[in-house]
TrEMBL record:
Belongs to the CheB family. Coiled coil: none annotated. CDD domains: CheB_Rec, REC_CheB-like. InterPro entries: CheB-like, CheB_C, CheY-like_superfamily, Sig_transdc_resp-reg_Me-estase, Sig_transdc_resp-reg_receiver. Residues 150-343 form the CheB-type methylesterase domain. GO terms for cellular component: cytoplasm. One of its GO terms (molecular function) is phosphorelay response regulator activity. The keyword Disulfide bond does not apply. Its main location: cytoplasm. It is found in: Cytoplasm. Involved in chemotaxis. Part of a chemotaxis signal transduction system that modulates chemotaxis in response to various stimuli. Catalyzes the demethylation of specific methylglutamate residues introduced into the chemoreceptors (methyl-accepting chemotaxis proteins or MCP) by CheR. Also mediates the irreversible deamidation of specific glutamine residues to glutamic acid. The gene is cheB1. The active site is at residues 162, 188, 285. This is Protein-glutamate methylesterase/protein-glutamine glutaminase.
């Protein structure tokens, strides 16, 4: 890189600051330009040093991380990676932080875990540093016509997302009518976080949003989110009916739950009677699975580059020919509604 990524670490724990700094300094592209024990101290550093990225602890004295994040987003937007304790309260607060504009949340390891437990923070910081330029890029709709959609009024919609997905889901699901085909969602998140996400989305939506359980029959007007971190969410068909299935397995495409796993199961069970949507996120999870859906006759959408927090997963899907149409985030809900309407104007 021509210039190092300048980072300020904000954490009330001296040990936490030390671990984060040590992990980030292992990457030669990152420079720690300041550390602060509370938001008031951090404010002065931000004004003086103008960092590219901030890591921000949620629970701190004088002003909590959410209040500080809100001030940052209002006065001088800077990519912020929240560092959150892996508890129910920490998960709920993290979801709120993502909705306020945080780039992503990193679950804080236990104090005895050591520096290696913070290694996953490095790619988040690097992606956050490039997120503003990613939002401004533009890409045209995909013109690959080799696979054509064959049906309307699908029986299931599958959505995959990662970094930026909380914001994206919050822009799509509340705009869908209560009588909509069932939706299955894999969003990369740690355990506990997906339950908080489902609860918050459910409060915003006309459809019913829940963290998925195993063996639940799919119902219209419901969305099922894969539980974070433990099992893959699959679609299964038994006696002509569709069910959720939570299955233990190794990580796929680096993730568990994996978007590829969800999309492949939908391609197998529903084929042309399905819609696949791949949203913002790092990496390429979902690209091959969405291609299988498209080959099976499904209608496939990708979030446009200009509206992504990170244009990684949709780009990978586009490059392998899995995306039939690229759509801005602001138009995805309307695109789904238009496509899913039956000839008589209803959804079922």
């Amino acid at each position: 890189m021509s210039r190092k990524i300048r980072v300020i670490i904000v954490d009330d724990s001296k040990t936490g600051r030390a671990f984060i700094a040590a992990a980030l300094r292992r990457d030669p592209d990152i420079e720690i330009i300041g550390m602060a024990a509370d938001p008031l101290e951090a404010r002065d550093l931000i004004i003086k040093d103008q960092p590219d990225v901030i890591t921000l602890d949620i629970e701190m004295p004088n002003m909590n991380g959410l209040q500080f994040l809100e001030k940052i987003m209002r006065m001088r937007p800077i990519p912020v990676v929240m560092v959150s304790s892996l508890t129910a309260r920490g998960a709920e607060t993290s979801i709120e932080a993502l909705q306020l504009g945080a780039f992503d949340c990193f679950p804080k390891p236990a104090a005895f875990s050591g520096i290696d437990a913070y290694a996953g923070l490095v790619p988040l910081v690097k992606a956050a540093a490039g997120s503003s330029s990613g939002r401004n890029s533009i890409i045209n709709s995909v013109s690959n016509k080799s696979f054509q959609r064959r049906v309307i009024s699908p029986e299931v919609i599958a959505i995959g997302a990662s970094t930026g997905g909380v914001e994206a889901l919050g822009a799509i699901l509340p705009r869908l009518p209560s009588v909509f085909p069932p939706i299955m969602i894999t969003q990369h998140m740690p355990p506990l976080f997906t339950a908080s996400l489902a609860t918050r989305l459910n409060q915003m939506c006309d459809i019913q949003v829940q963290e998925s359980e195993d063996g639940v029959p799919l119902e219209n007007g419901h969305a099922y989110i894969a539980p974070g971190g433990t099992r893959h969410l699959h679609l299964k068909k038994i006696g002509g009916r569709l069910f959720t299935s939570l299955d233990v397995g190794e990580p796929v495409s680096g993730h568990r739950p994996s978007v590829d796993e969800l999309f492949r199961s939908v391609a197998h069970c529903s084929g042309a009677s399905s819609v696949g949507v791949i949203l913002t996120g790092m990496g390429r999870d979902g690209a091959e699975g969405l291609l299988e859906m498209r080959k099976a006759g499904a209608y496939t959408l990708g979030q446009s580059a200009a509206s992504c927090v990170v244009y990684g997963m949709p780009k990978a899907a586009m490059e392998v020919g899995a995306v039939e149409r690229m759509v801005p985030l602001s138009s995805i809900a309307e695109t789904l509604i238009s496509y899913c309407k039956s000839e008589n104007g209803g959804f079922v």
